[in-house]
Amino acid sequence: QEATEGHDEL
Amino acid sequence: MNIFRLTGDLSHLAAIIILLLKIWKTRSCAGISGKSQLLFALVFTTRYLDLFTSFISLYNTSMKLIYVACSYATVYLIYMKFKATYDGNHDTFRVEFLVVPVGGLSFLVNHDFSPLEILWTFSIYLESVAILPQLFMISKTGEAETITTHYLFFLGLYRALYLINWIWRYYFEGFFDLIAVVAGVVQTILYCDFFYLYVTKVLKGKKLSLPA
Question: Distance between CA atoms of B168 and B43, rounded to whole angstroms?
């Protein structure tokens, strides 16, 4: 998982 | 999005709404740790800064905005509107013992050494322990109102459901986020003692009170 792509979970 | 993730989010939302309604309806925040609520406001603020940088979905954006707004509303009710009912004498947990180590750890152990990512990591670590002032307060007073225990139950259930969501995502999507998982496990473990009391006492119609 690329950290720079952002996080899709809350 | 799987069912565990969705019910986890809804459980989290339920917890936040229950707390807001409890304070609003009773016009009192007695028994609620303002410090925990301040920490949660800090958690949401530092985690959702990506609202400004990336768009994931309408669901994602609206939930983030709702969580942030509700957490600030809760802090406002406790420290401003119903300040007179705030039980500060029992809310004596030293939050610097949480914020400082968590801040240090987020600099040392993160996915990427960038400001936004460090703040996200900080929020994940901080969330895992943010409930401690509230649990400390309950252990100090030896009791909690039933509605407060419902709040804590849904708040604990949310992260437990996320754990199942992460197992699901690992198997079906190959997704694995070690930081979130470890912090999520710690967070859920902190609620275990409370879950036991909730099931054995509150669900049987008794008030949650601890032996002196």
Answer: 25
Residue count of chain A: 10
Residue B93 pLDDT grade (very low, low, confident, very high; cuts 50, 70, 90):
very high
- How far away is chain B from the Cα of A10, in angstroms, using its nearest Cα? 7
Give the model's pLDDT for residue B49. Answer: 96
Is the pLDDT assigned to residue B151 strictly greater than 60?
yes
How many residues appear in chain B?
212
Residues of chain B found within 8 Å of residue A3, distances taken between Cβ atoms: 110-112, 114, 117
First and final CA of chain A: distance in angstroms?
Answer: 16
Choose among A1, A6, A9: nearest Cβ to B54.
A6
In this prediction, residues B28-46 reach a mean pLDDT of: 98
Q: Give the Cα separation of B89 and B73 in Å (integer).
A: 22
Q: Are B82 and B27 in contact (CB under 8 A)?
A: yes
Looking at residue A5, its pLDDT comes to 62
Nearest residue to B74 via CA among B113, B130, B124: B130
Chain centroid offset of residue B111 CA: 22
CB A4 to CB B112 under 8 A? yes
Contact A4 B53 (CB under 8 A): no
Q: Taking 90 as the threshold, does the pLDDT of residue B115 lie above it? A: yes
